[in-house]
UniProtKB/TrEMBL annotation:
PANTHER family: G-PROTEIN COUPLED RECEPTOR (PTHR24242), OLFACTORY RECEPTOR (PTHR24242:SF411). PROSITE patterns: G_PROTEIN_RECEP_F1_1, G_PROTEIN_RECEP_F1_2. Pfam families: 7tm_4 (PF13853). This is Olfactory receptor. SUPFAM superfamilies: Family A G protein-coupled receptor-like (SSF81321). Residues 27-276 form the G-protein coupled receptors family 1 profile domain. Keywords: Cell membrane, Disulfide bond, G-protein coupled receptor, Glycoprotein, Membrane, Olfaction, Receptor, Sensory transduction, Transducer, Transmembrane, Transmembrane helix.
Length: 293
């Protein structure tokens, strides 16, 4: 149903979210393109940034086109298989980013705390294996969540008052006992939140300890600037994830759930390339070079 109670603003909301989606596509594709063509950006840090952009593209494209149809027409038909498929890719890319962000923090840890061995440790083979694991885990682990949901019995109406197929609204439609699945989601989300977050906190504790020892102000600023963008992205991603999954659905109102879902699936993929582009001199220089050519 999208925003079914805002019929008078359907066209305005459609145009607004269409612009956001197009900017998301252009921003993330631009980062992937710049890293691919610019030799200066072909380092492990930007390699992992490309994977973050690819994950943002998948999650945004999986959600937004169908959501735009629901907004414009006051609703959008979706098959049962389409609904489960959308849920699968949404949860899969969320799991992927959960594991990709700690890998990016580990890359910064090696670069700042162990610079002499950085190139030998983060060689192409190790870099590729690190980037593949989040995708493999994202595409396999979420089966434990999606399969039980696909076995729900639905005996109520078939109207999902949400912006995409997601656990919370599907629970409302099911006549099955969903408490077990909700507990499973909570227990599944807990280690995926605490583990990566704990790893990120640990690596950045070492990073900040190393930065404090750098004798020059310029060196400190340069080291911190390479980490600040990643910290902002981490805070945004895990903040919305906490609000969405670590709080039981009884603590959500429908409007709050839609707003948190928008932040996670629409605005986070939109802001990530902006954050990295505005705070990164190498990307700015690569963009100016491409524009100049």
């Amino acid at each position: 149903m999208g925003f079914g109670n805002l019929h008078n603003f359907n066209v305005v909301l459609f145009i607004f979210f269409l612009i956001i989606y197009l900017c998301t596509l252009m921003g993330n594709l631009l980062i992937i393109f710049l890293v691919s063509v610019n030799v200066r950006l072909q380092s492990p840090m930007y390699y992992f940034l490309c994977h973050l952009s690819m994950s943002d593209l998948v999650i945004s494209t999986n959600i937004v086109p169908n959501m735009l149809g629901a907004i414009l027409f006051g609703g959008q038909k979706m098959t049962y298989l389409g609904c489960i498929t959308q849920l699968y890719f949404f949860s899969g890319t969320t799991v992927t980013e959960c594991f990709l962000l700690p890998i990016m923090s580990y890359d910064r840890y090696l670069a700042i705390c162990n610079p002499l061995r950085y190139s030998s440790i983060m060689d192409p083979k190790f870099r590729i294996s690190l980037s593949l694991w989040p995708w493999l885990l994202g595409l396999t682990l979420n089966f434990s969540i999606v399969l039980p949901i696909s076995n729900f019995d639905f005996c109520h109406d078939n109207i999902i008052d949400h912006i995409y197929c997601e656990l919370f609204p599907l629970q409302k439609l099911s006549c099955s006992d969903t408490s077990g699945v909700e507990l499973e989601v909570f227990l599944f989300s807990l280690p995926m939140f605490i583990g990566p977050c704990g790893f990120i906190v640990g690596t950045y504790a070492h990073i900040f300890h190393t930065i404090v020892k750098i004798p020059t102000t310029t060196g400190k600023h340069k080291a911190f600037s390479t980490c600040s963008s990643h910290l902002i992205v981490v805070g945004t991603f895990y903040g919305t994830l906490t609000a969405k999954y670590m709080i039981p659905s009884k603590g959500h109102t429908l409007l709050v759930n839609k707003i948190v879902s928008l932040l996670h699936t629409v605005f986070t993929p939109f802001f990530n390339p902006i954050i990295y582009s505005l705070r990164n001199q190498d990307i700015k220089m690569a963009l100016k070079k491409v524009c100049g050519q």
